[in-house]
Amino acid sequence: MSTSPRQGLGSKRAETVERLFAAGLEELDEVGHGALTIRSVASRAGVSPATAYTYFASKNHLFAELFWRYLAEDADHDPQGADAVARVQDVTRRMAERLAASPALAAAVTPALLSSDADVARLRLRIGGEFLDRFARALGEQADPAVLEALVLAFSGALLQAGMGVMTYTDMGERLDAVVAAILEGHA
Amino acid sequence: MSTSPRQGLGSKRAETVERLFAAGLEELDEVGHGALTIRSVASRAGVSPATAYTYFASKNHLFAELFWRYLAEDADHDPQGADAVARVQDVTRRMAERLAASPALAAAVTPALLSSDADVARLRLRIGGEFLDRFARALGEQADPAVLEALVLAFSGALLQAGMGVMTYTDMGERLDAVVAAILEGHA
DNA sequence: TTCTAGATTGGACATGTGTCCAGTCAGGTG
DNA sequence: CACCTGACTGGACACATGTCCAATCTAGAA
């Protein structure tokens, strides 16, 4: 039995996974997602590659987990603003700012989420659900489902384009302001 | 000097590249983009891997070229419809139908276009430009730039979600009808 | 202290990826 | 005909990826 009161949290496994996450972020910033390998992350975290692979099925899985955690840090925030337009813009601006603050992670996660890897597929759904929730909350109760879907799709599209380098994450915030306004126009 | 009047078109190189494209499509349908390798495509086309690599820098480059050609087949079509909404829906429906008809190619191209490969980056811009053109033509002259961008982003987002398997390409057509209507509402 | 279960490890393995290069081949040229 | 040139080829290379397993370590339980 574990001696720790909080089940599992203080376990050896939990400590190791934390070290791997931290090493992953550092490695991402320093060498980018192209050059990063699970082995390099393992080495930075001071564990063997075999150990790292017991935690992450693949490089893509690692990126997806890192992104999910990054997203979750911000999950409790309630969108601010007087009307739906302002609240939705608060959501997109906030996301864009956070992504701009971690460009390496943002660049890594876009291709990673497309992986057919089973662990990635699970996280992908969670992440998609989180986006949907945020927009739904910003819109309020009686929102037009087509409008909600338009927002989610436009946001996904912006993520994709930024991920491909067609626009920067800083641009993304501003451009989405206009796009959100255009979509919501006539949908009081 | 070449004996062929149409410069290069009848050259050996052009014939080989055609065979490689054809083999690539067959291989995609039969084994999917995961299992496909440049070597397997080369073998199917009856050329050596080394030869195939003189035409395509990577698997992703092959997918991007295949998709670009598939897109170009349809480039001259003028969007039909009385008003902007109908014309834009014609564009999205048409694309969705074509993608649904070649699911393996569609599944392959989404991750491929995210590659940092230089040849892919070139095609990515061309493909993005093509989408923009089609929506711009469907909207007509004096379109709101924010609306145009909203449409392109929503469409990109739909491609991404379908590419991830969150929706089918058949769904995509129907869902985009509603999304397009919602975006254009109030933008006569 | 001894035992035990879970965590970690080294290292080999099979596979894929893209590069490179010296050599061959075929068809048009002079 | 002999010659060239562009296309193609075989095969080796360096590297990354993810898997596997028997051996070892370590901290808490008895």
Task: Describe this structure as you would to a colleague.
Two copies of one chain form a homodimer. Chain A is mostly helical. Chain A has two domains: 12-55, Homeodomain-like (Arc Repressor Mutant, subunit A, Orthogonal Bundle), CATH 1.10.10; 69-184, Tetracycline Repressor, domain 2, CATH 1.10.357. Chain A contains nine helices and no strands. Chain A is elongated and about 55 Å long. The A-B interface holds A 34, 110-111, 113-116, 121, 124-125, 128, 144-147, 149-150, 152-161, 163-166, 175, 178-179, 181-183, 185-187 and B 34, 110-111, 113-116, 121, 124-125, 128, 144-147, 149-150, 152-161, 163-166, 175, 178-179, 181-183, 185-187. Chain A binds a DNA duplex (30 and 30 nucleotides) through residues 1-3, 11-13, 16, 37-39, 47-51, 53-54, 57-59.
